[in-house]
Design a protein that fits this description.
Layout (H helix, E strand, L loop, with lengths): L4 H11 L3 E3 L6 H10 L4 E4 L5 H16 L5 E7 L9 H9 L4 E7 L6 E8 L2 E8 L4 H14 L5 E3 L1 H7 L1
Helix pairs in contact: 1-2, 3-4, 3-6
């Protein structure tokens, strides 16, 4: 949880080991603690540990460059009971698009996570989709994040850094 972040960072910094943070909903104070810790240790911080989501964000940036006049819509679908709406991944996608996107949140069933980015153009649409079918995707991504961070210099790293390297 976001509340555990400062304790986790204090533990990691005291031992000079990397920290991996994959939760969302941080306060400004908690985000500042992440930035402060990253001055002395490597911190892997992302709202979504799926490599597919990182690829979706990269693809969305490329598509938006083709259609600079287009305002995108992000439709995020998650399970009933997900605490935040919109979720961190949808916010991250909006940020990748320069803030030029509306977010629509759907909470239904036991959906693991789906993000659709719709670029509505004159007489056509372009839709990019990432759909998680198993939550094990996030566990594998977290392991990749931990491996990636070992031996890195102090700083903040994300799944986009892994995608760039691979």
């Amino acid at each position: 949880t976001a509340q555990a972040t400062p304790v986790t960072l204090k533990y990691a910094a005291a031992r000079a080991i990397p920290a991996v943070i994959g939760t969302t909903g941080h306060t400004d104070v908690q985000r500042a603690a992440i930035s402060d810790a990253a001055k002395t240790i490597p911190v892997f911080y992302d709202s979504n540990f799926s490599l597919g989501m990182a690829a979706l964000a990269a693809a969305a940036v490329k598509v938006s460059a083709f259609f600079p006049e287009c305002r995108a819509a992000i439709i995020e679908t998650h399970r009933v009971g997900k605490k935040d709406a919109p979720g961190g991944s949808a916010k991250k996608l909006r940020s990748a698009l320069g803030g030029n996107a509306d977010i629509f949140s759907v909470r239904t069933g036991d959906e693991k996570g789906r993000h659709d980015i719709v670029f509505a153009l004159d007489g056509q649409t372009v839709v990019l989709t990432h759909h998680v079918l198993s939550r094990s995707v996030f566990a594998r991504g977290a392991v990749e994040a931990a491996r990636f961070t070992i031996g890195k210099a102090a700083g903040i790293y994300t799944m986009e850094d892994i995608v760039r390297v691979n």
